[in-house]
Amino acid sequence: MSEKPAANARGPYAKGVARRQEILDRAIEVFAERGSDRTSLRAIAQEVGVTHAALTHYFGSLEELLVEVYRESERRGDRLPVPPGETPLDMVKHWAESNRQVAGLVQLYSTLVAAALEEGHPAARDFATERFARVRNDLAERVVRNQQDGRLRADVDPHAVAALVIAASDGLQTQWLLDPDAPQDAALSLLETLLAAPQPDAR
Amino acid sequence: MSEKPAANARGPYAKGVARRQEILDRAIEVFAERGSDRTSLRAIAQEVGVTHAALTHYFGSLEELLVEVYRESERRGDRLPVPPGETPLDMVKHWAESNRQVAGLVQLYSTLVAAALEEGHPAARDFATERFARVRNDLAERVVRNQQDGRLRADVDPHAVAALVIAASDGLQTQWLLDPDAPQDAALSLLETLLAAPQPDAR
């Protein structure tokens, strides 16, 4: 209609973007503090301090808002980058440590994954499917590098290692959240030991 | 009030027990066919063919009904017993195989675990916490036997192995449900190989 691009930095569109971001910022605070208990969009709107209509306008559905909260939180570097030489297990231990600071986001992750497995939650399903595939690929590339530099055993399939490490990370996190006596650290260390390249000096 | 015990096989109480069981039987069929999509008790009542009031009377809440559906399904031996000599990985592969027959119950499991991690779902939390602790103990005992009979490496902590195997089982199942190309079998076989006792003849 106009020569201005839709994403121009002024005008109603830009205001909308800024407002959406404000709401998202506040929603992230709410979830980090209170957990993601799958409640109504109306209850969340109240907590965030906007109308139900505004949330629907900017995010479409509760599910899409939850996905955006998680994505934005990840983008902000709640998970700091791990140096490329570190193994997948180093990454997982790092995740486990940082996740303990933000229980709400861990709950949100498990809620989104559970929703993804149910019928009728396309946004959660797309999010979880894409995320698992991407993290598996990233970790598999890391495994290949670790095998080349002699940190991980060379006789294991990188994609199987990646899937196993992610599963161990997710599953042990769940067990630990429900029961602090569950041996999360011991089990991650065990997997690390099992995957380590044999030491030339070892008997 | 009466000399009859509360659980007498006749009278209104017995009728109530039978009716509750009928509803539970039907609910299990519904979930096995359609998945556990976390919906309202009202919608489930309609599907099962009872009133909302009846469901509330017999099960209290949607959450408690879901827990009972899962427990009853397990009791019925959807998961056949595995011989004691089998390793935890044999069990997990067996679970993975039988779970592929009942996608609805797998969804129900992940829904209950996700609810357990949220606030305000005491029935799901009790179910998941008790179940993880019990399965960890069962598998740890199995690991000890497998270590004694030389099937599993002796230098690993049985409780850490148990937690790791459960996490791998749950997490790989999730990845596979979202993406049939996720290497569930390869990753379980990898864990099996890593945990196997070294063969005396191996180089």
From TrEMBL, chains A, B:
Family annotation (SUPFAM superfamilies): Homeodomain-like, Tetracyclin repressor-like, C-terminal domain
Residue ranges occupied by any HTH tetR-type domain in the UniProt entry: 17-77
Residue ranges: DNA binding: 40-59
Keyword terms: DNA-binding, Repressor, Transcription, Transcription regulation
Top-level taxon in the UniProt lineage: Bacteria
InterPro entries the record matches: BetI_C, Homeodomain-like_sf, HTH-type_TetR-like_transc_reg, HTH_TetR, Tet_transcr_reg_TetR-rel_C_sf
Membrane-crossing residue ranges in chain numbering: none
Pfam families assigned: TetR_C_6, TetR_N
Protein name (record): TetR/AcrR family transcriptional regulator
Organism: Microbacterium alkaliflavum
